[in-house]
Amino acid sequence: MSYIDWSDAEEMYGLLVEFVEDELGKAHDNPMRRRFLAKLDSDLIALQDRITTMTLDESIDAFEEIQGSLEEDFANDPVVEHVEAFVEELRRMHGEADAEPAVPPDVPTTTPRRQGRE
User: Is 76 a domain residue?
Assistant: First the structure.
């Protein structure tokens, strides 16, 4: 089993694209869902070149735009649930980034070891 780093937006993005493409491959008997998934896949792939240079705010905006463009007819589709979970995770990461206190450069970031009694 491979380890998924849920704090890595790029890795999460890759997993989302992979899931959408897997579902697209399974939708051969449902032309409406196939069309929906093909558009979503196209929207996600359009971000591929920019994802590594986008700030977290830009990523959230881009994925919220994709989320907002999803067809209502597929609101209960598992792929939509994954897109929503992805956006929520980006928002969570953003909240954590905002909550992290800034550490001045002259303050050590590790706690020195205490000398124990022997």
Answer: yes
CA dist., res. 53 & res. 56, Å (int): 10
10: amino acid identity, one letter? E
Q: How many domains does the chain have?
A: 1
Q: Is 26 within the bounds of a domain?
A: yes
Average pLDDT over residues 100-111: 51
Residues 35, 25: contact at Cβ < 8 Å?
no
Q: What is the DSSP string of 1-64?
A: -----TT-HHHHHHHHHHHHHHHHHH-TT-HHHHHHHHHHHHHHHHTTTTTTT--HHHHHHHHH
Measured between alpha carbons, how far is 4 from 7 in angstroms, rounded to an integer?
Answer: 9
Residue 46 · residue 53 · CB < 8 Å? no
Contact 45, 66 (CB under 8 A): no
Higher pLDDT, 93 or 96: 93
